[in-house]
Amino acid sequence: MKRQTQAIRIQAERSQNREHAVPLYLTSSFTFEDAEQGRAIFAEEQSGNIYSRYMNPNVDEFVEKMCMFENAEDGLAFSTGMAAIFGAMAGVLKSGDHVVASSALFGSAIQILTKITSKWGITCTFVDGKDIQAWANAVQENTRFFFCESPSNPGLELIDLEALAKVKEGKNIILAVDNCFATPILQNPIDLGADLVIHSATKYIDGQGRVLGGVVCGKKEYIQEIRFFARHTGPSLSPFNAWVMSKSLELLELRMEKHSANAMALAEALENHPKLNAVKYPFLKSHPQYELAKKQMKFGGGILTLDLKGGYDKVVAFSKALNIVSVSPNLGDTRTILTHPASTTHSKISAEDKTAVGITEGLVRIAVGLEDIEDLKADFLNALASL
Ligand SMILES: *Cc1c(COP(=O)(O)O)cnc(C)c1O
Question: For the chain, what are the domain ranges?
Answer without folding.
Answer: 3-249, 252-385
